[in-house]
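Chapter summary example: a protein plus adenosine monophosphate.
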Amino acid sequence: MSDWEEESEPWVPPPVSRPRSYRQGVGNGRGWSVGQGRGRWAEEGSRGNGDPPRNRETWKQGGSTPVCFRLDSSLVGMVIGRGGAKIKELEELSGARIKIVNDNYDSEVKLFGTRGQQDKAKELINDLVKSSGKEAVYEYSEIPDSTESTTPPRATEKPTAKIDWAFALKQAAIYEATKWADVPQIKKNFYVESKKISAMSKDEVLKWRKENNNIMCTDLNENEQRSIPNPVSDFEDAFSPFPEVMSALKVAGFKKPTPIQSQAWPIILQGTDLIGIAQTGTGKTLAYLLPGFIHLDLQPCTGDQRGGPGMLVLAPTRELALQVQEECSKYKYKGFKSLCVYGGGDRRNQISVVTEGVDIIIATPGRLHDLQMNDIVNLRSITYMVLDEADRMLDMGFEPQIKKILIDIRPDRQTVMTSATWPDGVRRLAKSYLKDPMMVYVGTLDLAAVNTVEQKVLVIPEEEKKAFTRHFIDCLKPEDKIIIFVGKKLMADDLASDLCIQGIQCEALHGGREQCDREQALDDFKEGKVRILIATDLASRGLDVHDITIVFNYDFPRNIEEYVHRVGRTGRAGRFGESVTLVTRNDWRVSEELINILERANQEVPEELFQMAERYREFKQRKNRERDMMPNRGRWRDSR
Ligand code: AMP
């Protein structure tokens, strides 16, 4: 066995095609356990439902009925930890087995082991949640585990009455109708197609879409096939009836709509719900903001009568929310007042602004839900709603809060959703909360379409990364602005303090820092007070700093999508950029996908990367062969 294999085999990397890490299990209601997930139980004789097997030694000897309790879903990620590190630690410290089953709002935590082990695990989880200082409600109630309970029902218990579903559904419909009976009329269609755009032939439309980042459009209305409006090629085509929008665009100095704008504007302006698959940097924010301004302005019910905000933008991170608000305030459309609401920001101030009255709220789901629950914000007045970077919001575990927020927003609103990817979770969300939407896909995830970044990849031993980075920084030009991406908060702090000790000015940006420090770091970087920002993936999306010249991937990101997002932080707004990526042998599972990206973008691929991909292919083949040679292993264990 070679030196390479010896070091790499103990950690079995997930298959290349697997898009997400631990959240796969958590997000879709399946059981999750650290390390090998369901597989661990399955291999050892489980009942096929992801629960631990009854015949495991631990459970036979003193294992008591599992202790179960509910945990707010937003806290699950913290308990699991990155790549399952935290849950593993908790298991090791307590000796109990911990299993988490995700539900829409609350997740169920099951603790297996002896009573003492269960108590210890419970205490550790309790401390962890408390230490986070999170505002999320931590409901803690022991509940009986239906799958494990062996206690027969008591004779005195009356059988529960059958639920009359038809009646219940009818009542729910009546309640829903009464709930929204008094909301004012809503107007959604403001689009007047210009003669030039109406005159486009089908072929011209197809050619135009192909030449503009290969725009693809689909109508997701299952009942009727509607025609998707032609894309607009100039600002006038969409906004000539709205002179204030035209002059705002002139002031901004933009020349023409970006691909997503050209196709999204006619769809949104005509009042149709939209799903825009596009990433940050494509102009997606203006794609939904400008039609939103018009929508808000032309409602039959004026701002004074509304009694609350008219537009809501939900965004996954404070950074993105603040960026959207900045974009919003730049246009000062009709004096609309906007407010950014996010956890970690000054809650009292946010409450006072909401109470005074705002037209547009840009919020992260957690804090908005908090204000909603405390009756501080009225969501009934919202008629235009945006779910920005929906995939990221789901990744961050915000689905329960989003769903709770949407309960209080009128169902006949107009909804726009943006997402960089189109996984199952986002599809589900779209199906539940958008009404007959059209979908516009702009192929920007394909880096081949963004030929403004020169991507360099260097295969290097882990222990040489720091020295190389230091040398790289020494060679920077004064006009360079560089963002260094690392995998862990600790690494960001470590690298930043190393550089500071050596007299090199830099800032660190990660989720472990106080909100005010994060904002300060970002401002310093934007304004050029510091030219080196060391960041975790918190900044890989949503960070809109135009003059970043170099993206430096100190650690390779957890998946190839994140690589694309990171690299997209440079080469923006028509400029050229450079990315440098350090790859170590631990990253071999992504080597093949990275080669694909580099080749499609006509970039140089180092020979070592090809060799790494080859070794990984051989490793996988060998593993498959080994599995095939023992086909009956699982069956034998199951039938024991
Ligand atoms: P976004 O994708 O919304 O993060 O936008 C990225 C950047 O592109 C923002 O700074 C916008 O101001 C800018 N932008 C938006 N629309 C246009 C346009 N039509 N032309 C040039 N830049 C634009």
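Key point: The CA atoms of residues 165 and 171 lie 10 Å apart.
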